[in-house]
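Chapter summary example: a protein plus adenosine-5'-triphosphate.
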Amino acid sequence: MSTDQNKFQAIISHCKEYGFVFPSSEIYDGLSAVYDYGQYGAELKKNIKDYWWKSMTQLHENIVGIDAAIFMHPTTWKASGHVDNFSDPMIDNKDSNKRYRVDHLIEGHAETLSADQAKELLSQMDELLKENDFAGLKTLIESNKIKCTVSGTANWTDVRQFNLMFSTQLGSVTDEANEIYLRPETAQGIFVNFLNVQKTGRMKVPFGIAQIGKAFRNEIVARQFIFRMREFEQMEMQFFVRPGTQKEWYEKWKEERMQWHLSLGTSPAKYQFKDHVKLAHYADAAVDIEFEFPFGFKEVEGIHSRTDFDLKQHQEYSRKKIQYFDTEINQNYVPYVIETSIGLDRMFLLTVCNAYEEEDLSTPEKADSRVVMRFPAKLAPIKLAIFPLTKRDGLPELARELMDDCKQAFYCFYEEKDAIGKRYRRQDAIGTPFCITIDHQTKEDGTVTIRHRDSMEQERIPMSDVKALVLSKII
Ligand SMILES: Nc1ncnc2c1ncn2[C@@H]1O[C@H](COP(=O)(O)OP(=O)(O)OP(=O)(O)O)[C@@H](O)[C@H]1O
């Protein structure tokens, strides 16, 4: 295993050991590509969500948020093109019956080649995918002698499309008329509510509608922990603009979204843009924001110029006029849309991968190390840990006083057990940026020791300053 793979395995284990992410229904051996968030994971995820929501809605006067249902009228998915188009080319190995997404199979093989050979293979694949040339893709797999990892053979079926939507039945009668889908993206809940929001909010184009919610995709190849899940959450924003201005807004949102990522303090070298080679049926431009995960640069967010495709389709299928009257130019039109779509779980994985560090603290006298999660303070699950040095002499009472005051404002953790050094290390492992120790001197002069997670430096400050100091770092 490479060092990066080792690191990724260590991150997955850490997530489980410290209550961030558990396999779903683990006591029954789990469910493939479905995960549960534990006590610290749920906090971290909520903080990422809040940071995105605030930056989209509170900080943009022309963006409002909604919360649409997961179930939608089935015609929604005919209009959006998902019934006909939301599929990936797949291939099965006849000996193992294992199914692969064609691009993943070829990409996996490319990783075993030299850089030049891999580049050549991937560009051939991109061309064939762009042309929907399934016979060509099969020939590419065969001519490169790509084998199934289970059977070890190259005995392949033809390449076929496989729809990724989950369906279920509404009500009690199980006939086709009652078939509905679990939404594969949150965007359509925004489009069908375009007029409701525009009218009731008296919104003027350009304006945006944001939403955070679950989406479901029957991903065939579920790999890389929470990177590709079957049930996941998206944070999407659809920005409605006057036709003809979409290019300008696309560039603006591309820049703004990258700035959002960088505002969390991540090194710019860890990010890159990647233009889509093959545009989706609804898009006239599309780019991914990619992050360097331990398994390489991969998409975390997509920015798509979706034209007027979705609103026009809903207009046609619902036979209801979905238009906007622009008083500035005295014209009715169907707005164009720029979409920013980020996976919450992928952003979670990014945050965890970026924060995880195994730090060597050895001195010539003693070998030592720690695992520290260097989360940005505003995302950390717990902001402040409060420790009385001992369980006696009124120290717990003083510590409780601080706890009661601070817990109104942010998430705090109180602990009396074990030596202080051990307590610090436990907080490092879950990424708590500040620890406070209350000792005998606190009783005399009202000061406490604050210990900083990243530098491990300690200083004495008045207990009365603690709350304001932490607040100043997390807003
Ligand atoms: N199966 C999934 N598990 C977790 N997050 C996902 C999944 N599919 C999509 N996302 C997230 O939703 C975002 C927007 O969805 P979009 O439809 O653009 O993804 P996509 O291009 O289909 O992703 P991919 O190419 O990785 O399948 C993605 O950038 C990603 O962060």
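Key point: The chain has 16 helices and 23 strands.
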